[in-house]
Amino acid sequence: MIGDSHVKMFRRKRLFVVHHLGAATAHNLGNPNSTTNSNRKLFNIIDKISRKDIVVLVFGEIDCRVHIYYHYKKNNERTALSELVNVTISNYGRVLEKLREAGVNLLVYGVPPATAVRNEYRYPFYAPPEIHSQINRVFNEKLKGFCEANGYEYIDVHSRFSDESGFMLGEYAADEIHLNGKVVDFVRGELNERLGINV
Fold first, then answer.
1. Minimum mean pLDDT among 76-80, 105-109, 120-124: which range?
2. Taking a C-beta distance cutoff of 8 angstroms, is the pair 56, 19 a contact?
3. 150 falls within a domain
4. Terminal CA-CA length for the chain
5. Is the residue at 198 inside a domain?
6. What is the pTM of this model?
7. Which terminus in the chain has less CB density within 10 A, N or C?
8. 199 part of a folded domain
9. Does 79 have pLDDT greater than 80?
10. In angstroms, rounded to a whole number, what is the distance separating the alpha carbons of residues 86 and 102?
11. Under a CB-based contact definition with an 8 Å cutoff, are residues 58 and 1 in contact?
12. Looking at per-residue confidence, does 123 or 109 come out higher?
């Protein structure tokens, strides 16, 4: 499991190895000069693993919760939210392609459902919960479509753990942002079914 803080629920779970890259975004994952150094960290990990290992990439939640809406408002709403989502997925997709070219056996973990989390970091622009939920839904739909069109396996945690309004179901919430450990069995099942393995 390689990604942002949403990998943490897999720590100390049998057969899962967790690499938390910090507050890495899908948008900047391919940028070698990003402030989080996520690109360097990712490829350092990839260089050390066996090509028999299965890599699950966990990115995009920070983009949905913070950056997409921030850039939408910062640019006076001149670029539609859906277009900002498209750009982010396109950037992410270039990283996926590089990993595939390197022979990495990978799956893409979708963005978890939105919550009514407050603007705890006091960003100048922060989406109201309903718009946050909409961004998460659209992002997941487009990411899933991208994965299907390009032959990447996609693990859909959004529709599985959200209510009819797209918000995280309380029984699966670890806190105001993250899903809890109950999700691990679902992911195991997805890996087993999609890859024909026994995790």
1. 120-124
2. no
3. yes
4. 13
5. no
6. 0.94
7. C
8. no
9. yes
10. 24
11. yes
12. 109
Is 144 within the bounds of a domain?
yes
Give the domain extent around 164.
2-192
Written as one letter, the residue type at 182 is: K
Alpha-carbon distance 107 to 129, whole Å? 28
CATH number of the domain to which 22 belongs? 3.40.50.1110
Taking alpha carbons only, the member of 71, 64, 112, 73 closest to residue 92 is 64
C-alpha span between 173 and 189 (Å, rounded):
19
Number of domains present in the structure of the chain: 1
The values of phi and psi at residue 106, to 5°, are: -130, 155
Q: What is the pLDDT of residue 117?
A: 83
User: Mean pLDDT over residues 87-95, rounded?
Assistant: 98
Strands of 2-3's sheet, edge to edge? 19-20, 2-3, 54-58, 105-109, 153-155
**Which residues, including other chains, have CB under 8 Å from residue 76's CB and lie 6 or more apart?**
none
Give the mean pLDDT of the chain. 95
Tokens of 84: 């900002």
pLDDT digits (tens, 9 = 90+) for 3-36: 999 999 999 998 899 999 999 999 999 999 999 9
For residue 22, the tally of other CB atoms under 10 A from its CB is 13
Residue 16's Cβ-side half-sphere holds a number of Cα atoms within 13 Å equal to 21
